[in-house]
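Lab notebook: predicted structure, single chain.

Context: the supervisor wants predicted structures on file for every construct in the current expression panel, including those that have not yet been purified. This is the next one on the list. No modifications to the sequence; it matches the entry in the shared construct table.
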Amino acid sequence: MAFFGLTLPFMATAANEPDVGAKAAMPTEAPQDGVVIRVQNLQKTFGDKQILSGLTVDLHHGENLVVMGKSGTGKSVLIKCIVRLIEPDAGRIEVFGQDMDGLDDDAVDALRLRMGFLFQSGALYDSMSVRENMEFPLRRHQKGLSRRQINQQVEQVLTSVGLMHAIDKMPAELSGGMRKRAGLARTLILKPEVMLYDEPTTGLDTATSHEISDLINAVRDEYRVSSIIITHDLPCARTCADRIMILKEGKVGALGTYDELDASDDPFVRSLFH
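Prediction complete. Output recorded below exactly as produced.
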């Protein structure tokens, strides 16, 4: 599958901050039960405000699961709990069949290295050029690469997101859409098994939003990457979602395909879709 004229098999994934990325890996095989991430009865409270109150959901191998909901319903908290950037108060999270609560720090880090995390901001290092931002995860997680190999991987991933012309620019010189694509390229430079997207199209114009949504699908289709996509952007949800989970009061308020939820008579669901 091609994007901006380059076939995706040349793409690989990287660490984003803080140490939530992916090292180079062969395409993953499906888990025996088909579930990559299992969340059961997840609960999280900040002060006297309960954000998650018994959330249960599975992410299947090769699936794009879109998470929607009003502000403050725990969308970002969910994915931060999955990678243990936030500790849940109760509940169980299994990633690749391993209970996150029973793992030591080294084991958690090893699991994190199999995931890519795209932050809203793109999480670029402002003091590094685009080229250096791409090189950073390669040098950190693929030690021993030659200069030629690094150059090849950087140029290929930037071409895949249409940013080869900006390879020597600084992040401050990029538009919002270019920063998002650069952040995505850096997250894709080491081939993740799971991608976690936090509002990937926020702040982008319509055309660039479509490009990012198409790239999310291309990554899924080529590598069978499993993804959780937090978004309030209906066109992104319509384009990307295999299933959509709507959070309501910290729980799953609705779960289904875009067409199923779009046809729902539930007033809460309709408030998000219409």
